[in-house]
Each structure stands twice: as structure tokens, then as C-alpha cells.
Design goal:
Blueprint lengths: L3 H28 L3 H6 L17 H19 L5 H12 L4 H19 L10 H12 L10 H14 L4 H22 L2 H12 L2 H6 L8 H15 L1 H14 L7 H9 L5 H24 L17 H14 L4 H19 L5 H21 L10 H13 L10
Amino acid sequence: MLTWLEKKRLASWIIFSSTILVVLISVTTVIFPTLVLRSFGGIAEYSGISPFEIGILAYPVLIIDAIIFGIMILYIKNKLPQLLTNSIRFIFNFEVSTRIAFLIILIILGGYVTFTISELSTPERWPDYYLGIKPMIEKWTITDSDSKYVTDFLLSASLHIFGNDKVIPFIASIAMLLVTYLLTTEITKKRFAGILSMVIVLQSGIFLIYDKSAAYPNFWVLFYILSLYLCYKKWPISSITFILSLLSKQISILFLPMIFFFTYDSNMPKQKKILIIAMYGAITFLGIVITLVGSEISFLTNTELVNEFQPHKFWQAFNAISYQLRFDGLIWILLLPLTIGLGIASRKKIVHANSILFLIMGAILSQPFLAAFTVMSSEPYRFMPLIIFCAVGVGVMFSKKTNQQV
């Protein structure tokens, strides 16, 4: 019979092994963009397609990751020059005061708003906006049966209050940066880690493409990340923000299992964990009942589910990650070293190292499974959670908060 500690270690190894496998396949799609499709049947016709054609990001990712791994190995073996070793230790131990953190955040957000606010006046670039979203929000009411209630309400409010449907999506993106900071600071107890995670999100190409989009706003991601943060701060409200995420974009349901593990992996008091898990268990049960009872209700609005798993679409969507995140070179560079670093942190009992690994794996797999069971196509904006989880994961690497501190 395994002890509690042995079960914990086994769970850590399973999560790390599963995540590293998913990450390695993902990185392979960057280095050899057609290898996964050729290997697993994602391409119907193979003629003229080389499985070992090098991707555009292959050399930067390989070279920089090799340097990072080299430094990691030399640091662990204490083979680096003392000056460099001391510099690395200083960075990982560095912290800022509350006042300095506030000023830094104010400067970062002030610069972001100053340099991007002019984009509010630019036309929406996505055809979906003109085909369905714009007509919907111009005459939206809460009784619209095809409505994504929270998203359409907020877009309609933005249009009618500010005369511009991009204003509230812009405010939501700013709020998402702040919540990323708060979540990282809460789980690491380091303000510097929170600032670093916020900067990583802010530099993301995906974030900067969709931060003011009325066609694909970040409402659902904001409410989901907020639900994770509120598990710590105000746990009864956490379920409300998750439901808001679900009513903003119903694919949030794919991220529900991650909340259970995030709660389990935390260093909250046991009674609080039980209450949170019970609360989300009730939401899950209610969702199943509604889906079974409703005659035309699906957990994916306006989406047709298929009767069986479609492996070719699964691998096509998996492979699509390489070009959907083509403007996020930093994420590709960080992904593999971060996964290994979080695995090491998990061995050191750093709080939430395991849950961030689970969140990263879930965010990567969400699109392939969505494509395999529905007629939905893969879209870049759905990887916004992955970018945030990677950013928070980098912050966790600076944490010294262990499960022994419960």
C-alpha cells in the first residue's frame, strides 16, 4: 500500500512525463512542421512533402534552448564561473517592495496603453466580425438564443456606452495582465515573479493581436484566470467567475478539470480544498444534467459534435500549433526548458509546479481534442491560456514557497 507521500511523488512523475511528451511533440512541429502529420496520418497526400523539412523557428529554438540547457546543467553541477553563478542566484532571490512593484506595473501598463490605444480606431480585421458579431451586438438582447451571453452583453455595452466595441475588450486585456500578476504573486509570494509573468504575457504576439479584438475578445480567459486566483482569495466567488467564463465562451468547459487539480495541488487548508472541489463538482453535475435534459443544448454553442474521434483532425490541430504561435517565439523558446524546470521544482516541492505543468498540457491538448470531436477549426486566440500558464510557470520558477509551508 502506497503512502500519501509516495502517491504524491507518483502523481508528480505521471504529470511531468505526460506534459514533457506533449511538449516534445509540440516542439517537434516547430522543428519539422510536417513530421507529425506524416507520421500519424494527418496528411491525405504525401507527394512532394518532406517530413524533415526544417521550420522557420527551428534553429532559433534549438540554439537558444541548447544554451539554456547548457547553463542549467553547469549551474546544477556548480561548474559556472562564480560571478555568473552569483548573478543567477541574485536574480532568483531578487524581490521588490510593494511600492516599487506598484510603480513598475504603473509604468508598464502606462506604456502599453500609450503606445496601443490608437488601435481602438482601426477597423476590425476579422471577417467573422462583419458576418455575424457586429450585426448581433448592434441589436443584442438577453433573449437571443444564439448569444454568448457575457461576451455579447459586454460588446454591446462597449458599443452603446463608448461608441466603440473595442473599448471594453481593451479594458479586459489590461485586467487580464493585472490578474496574471496577482495570481503569480499569490502562488509564489514574490512580486518580482508577478511582474515578470505580466511582461511575458504583454510581449506575446497572440496577446497583442487580440487584445482589442471585438471578434475574439479575452473575456473568457480573464474570467478563467480570475477563477484560479479567487480559489485562494475569495473561493465562493471563484465559481461565479468560472461560470462567467463559460458564458463568455463555452470551450472554457475544457479547462474545468484543471481547476480541480489546481485546488488539490495548492497549499490551502484541507477543508477549504474540499469545499472548492465540492463546489466545482456541483457545477460539473449541473452541467451534465442540463446537457442531458436539454433537447438541443451542447457545451459548444453553434458547434456540431461528431459521433467518433477523428484522429487525422487531432493531429492536424496538433500540428497547427506550430504556425498558430509563429509570432510567439519566446513561448517556443521557453516551453521545453520551462517544462523541465517545473519538473525539477516539483521534486523540490515548490507549490503549484505540478499544477502549472497540468495547465500547460491541458492548454496544448484542448485544441486537438476540440478538433477531433467537433467540426471546429483551430484558432490562434484559443492559445491565450497557454501563454498565461507559461508566464505564470516562469514566475513559479522564482518561488521558494513549498508544500511544507502549509
